[in-house]
Amino acid sequence: MRQNPGMSEQWFAVVAPGGEAAAARELADLSGVGGIEASAGGVAFEGDLAAGLRANLWLRCATRLLLRLGDFRARDWDAMRRGVARLAWKDLLPADARVSVVVSQRGCRLYHTGGIAERVGSGLREACGEALAIVRAAEATQTVHVRGERDRWTLSLDASGERLDRRGWRLERSAAAVRETLAALVVALCEWDPAQAFVDGFCGAGTFAIEAAQTALRVAPGSGRSFACEGWLRADVARGASLRREAEALRRAAAPAEIVAADRSSRALAIASRNAVRAGVAAAIRFESSEFARLVPPAPRGLLVLDPPYGHRQGDRGSARAGYAQLARALLPRWSGWRVGVLAPDPGVLAGFPGHRFAHHVLPHGGLRVHLLALELC
Questions:
Q1: What is the pTM of this model?
Q2: Residues of the chain with pLDDT under 50
Q3: 56 by DSSP, 3-state: which?
């Protein structure tokens, strides 16, 4: 049995494959965070409960944040129940908490997820009292994550609640809209400097431009929502309020460079504009009705993000290839000096793009994989 002594807790930020290094860099910028270690699927780190709330407030690329309660070995049902009951749930979960249990395992003697969840529930009630209820995810106020690897089980408490991409502002979506965390990850992987301009050539719901604007304005992405960890028994309400005031005090009054969201669809621009208002960054973004081929760069240098709608068509590879070829031809000489990030479902359509390629990432997008090509135009 291993538990975390003292006030230094063990955390794990869950990140989409390909985003671990970017999330690690975000964590390195936060005070009170140490022991940062990236691995497949996320980033482990150390810090107190305030550090966990700070991470929830500021992480742009992570999907959710977990507090590691401990781990143990179990090859039978009784060992599973006892192992769960020995962990420090009573310090965190209210006696009447409504808890859902999420189970995953690989290579374990105990493999029936329903049976595992049932024993975990028994252990939780033994630790916290019979008033604790095991419920479905939609009815839960807290979530316990159980991960088994060759009979070794790690138990974690979800510190985020809703996924961290649920920023609270994107109430309207356009076709094939990207999640906020993916948009933030694309901006980070393209190594955008907020002191330079940003342009989204096919803005859709405005997600890329809004994430860029929040980055430039130093808006904490989680500032408009609450987190599951704020309902824990050891949560410090006054400290939480202080961290939110601290985040608000860091906000800039204006972006240091121009941010443009362009689209030929008036409907998409209207959606993007309303989303930007809800995100509190509408004044930092210029919305422009334009075909990409006619779009004029607002500065000599910056980052151009291209997520064209024809890239999402299924079974129409010829049309996608032609569309991307047209995009590639439109880049030079107009966008010379700019950094470009292009998203595509098929790396083959990116072959004709000009410039120096400095990164190629494969990222998850709506159950599929999307390729991000980052290049510098000479």
A1: 0.92
A2: 1-6, 313-314
A3: helix
